[in-house]
């Protein structure tokens, strides 16, 4: 079976198996990420600077010492239903979520062919914290499927992506326990409270809790929520900044901080529409 056939198998399987999750009463405290560039490594393939802010659910800068409470943003419901699975969702939800891990990671040794027709190939690794029951191979295949999606960033005709298991990479995706996420993000001045994700320089740090459970405010399959996280963060790596809702009833841009509210838009995980139109809105300063 070829890599394309493998990805299509996962996609078709999700159309049959993935249902819409019932919304619960729990409210996940999310905050806007400020992506901070941290020295170390050389950006490859012409990456723009890493000074972009935000992701789907993200950390905020650590506040100065104060007795004042840190504010929380409003939450955002809804999701469109485009597939991006690699593992059985019900099984994934049963993965234990330890509060802390050792802070060391296993790199998925899976390697794929470039996906997309763009001349610029962005190489990336997928790493899972040691001691948790999430398969790094399954995570890598799922992220590869997201980045190969017809509505993903390859639709711009300029960028391609390649999963690598060794050698140099343009960015890494780390999936980690809440405590480890707090430590990595906190070292860069970001506050994640054990709940949300962040980006530090060239590294996307995904909270295991969000990867397994999704968000109670995201009314759709957990695989769709994962796609929003990956698409938003990789969008920053491509030089895309934050935008807001483009109009009442329109799909929310992937580069919109949807966790802060939809402002009349409909939740959406993908950068491009089915007809190839880039989904955007007014820039956020």
TrEMBL record:
Keyword check for Membrane: yes
Native species: Streptomyces niveus
Span list, region Disordered: 52-117
Protein name (Swiss-Prot/TrEMBL): DUF3152 domain-containing protein
InterPro entries xrefs: DUF3152 (IPR022603)
Residue stretches making up the DUF3152 domain: 97-261
Keywords associated with the record: Membrane, Transmembrane, Transmembrane helix
Transmembrane annotation, as ranges: 26-47
Family annotation (Pfam families): DUF3152
């Amino acid at each position: 079976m070829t890599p394309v056939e493998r990805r299509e198998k996962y996609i078709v399987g999700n159309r049959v198996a993935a249902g819409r999750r019932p919304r619960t009463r729990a409210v996940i405290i999310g905050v806007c990420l400020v992506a901070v560039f941290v020295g170390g490594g050389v950006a490859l393939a012409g990456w723009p600077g890493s000074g972009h802010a935000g992701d789907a659910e993200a950390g905020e800068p650590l506040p100065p010492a104060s007795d004042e409470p840190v504010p929380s943003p409003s939450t955002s419901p809804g999701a469109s239903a485009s597939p991006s699975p690699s593992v059985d969702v019900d099984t994934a939800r049963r993965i234990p979520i330890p509060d802390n891990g050792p802070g060391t990671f296993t790199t998925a040794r899976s390697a794929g062919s470039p996906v997309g027709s763009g001349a610029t190939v962005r190489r990336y690794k997928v790493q899972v914290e040691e001691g948790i029951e999430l398969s790094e191979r399954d995570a890598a295949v799922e992220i590869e499927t997201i980045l190969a999606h017809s509505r993903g960033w390859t639709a711009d005709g300029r960028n391609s992506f390649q999963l690598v298991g060794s050698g140099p990479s343009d960015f890494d995706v780390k999936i980690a326990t809440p405590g480890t996420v707090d430590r990595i993000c906190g070292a860069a001045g970001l506050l994640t409270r054990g709940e949300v994700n962040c980006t530090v320089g060239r590294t996307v740090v995904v909270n295991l809790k969000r990867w397994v459970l999704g968000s109670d405010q995201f009314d759709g399959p957990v695989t769709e929520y994962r796609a929003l996280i990956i698409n938003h963060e990789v969008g920053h790596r491509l030089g895309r900044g934050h935008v807001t809702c483009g109009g009442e009833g329109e799909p929310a841009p992937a580069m919109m901080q949807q966790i802060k509210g939809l402002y009349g838009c409909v939740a959406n995980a993908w950068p491009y529409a089915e007809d190839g139109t880039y989904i955007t809105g007014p820039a956020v300063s």
